[in-house]
């Protein structure tokens, strides 16, 4: 048995935090198959698929308006770099996938920004990547938003609204600071 | 039943031709699980995986030097374009994947050029994409090269050698012209 002193340094693991919101989530039916707060390991060679068909998708949304496969996430390493990233691909013929300002049609894909808002149908998902080193697997951690992630543009805001309308309390309530990408950091 | 006149215009299907070569292929053991010449349909949402593990890979190379998953191919549609493309990703931790002049490490990926040579270990694969319109699926057609795809650089060539050392007879023997990408075509 390898002693604590001799053991290999444990690698940090990339974790993708996804905070879901749906206007009708109070009955929580569409989210009843998602494991909130529990970190899940996904092998690096696996596509993380989100959709209605539980035979194909690891993450199931129980909603007839959701496509069999709604979108998929691919873990990859940038060429000539050690940077590990995700790519998101719209797998739905019926529904556009909006990543921040970019609208993806069926089979379109883009790199997932470190922090972004993903929308499809009435669903809103805040995605935040927590960097890691392991190339064997990554982790996902799903959260449920208590308030809409996108602010209603038509409502007059009487108070200063945080960026994207997301309260930082959302994450700190799970003992996690919001991830800040500081370009001055090495 | 829909009559011939009323039926929807049939879509053309993207076909990826892959011509394999291995210096020890005469015993054909490594290629014995590949279906040469037979076109295979692959769903657009499926990753076409090549490797040793038949539980994961659709295309099996029976060779202990080949990784469980050696590489995968993803079908996708370019953003703001109707162009359908493939992306190739190295899934092997042990072996580099070389696509023309680009060396891919584990989890690196790039767009597959319309005509290119893919190398890993002693394997050489000529890949050629025949354009199509269908977004539901694509096809693959595997061929076996009779001569090495890459010419040996150290050998003096006494005769003019065709580009990439591939004889066009390779393809015409299957009743198929080599695919020419003519940029003047609409």
Automatic annotation (TrEMBL), chains A, B:
Start and end residues of each stretch annotated as Disordered: 166-186
A GO-annotated cellular component: cytoplasm
Keyword Hydrolase found? no
Q: Which UniProt keywords apply?
A: Cytoplasm, Immunity, Innate immunity
Entry's InterPro entries? FHA_dom (IPR000253), SMAD_FHA_dom_sf (IPR008984), TIFA (IPR033621)
Where would you find this protein in the cell? Cytoplasm
Q: What name does UniProt use for this protein? A: TRAF-interacting protein with FHA domain-containing protein A
Q: Which organism is it from?
A: Corythaeola cristata (Great blue turaco)
Q: Which gene encodes it?
A: Tifa
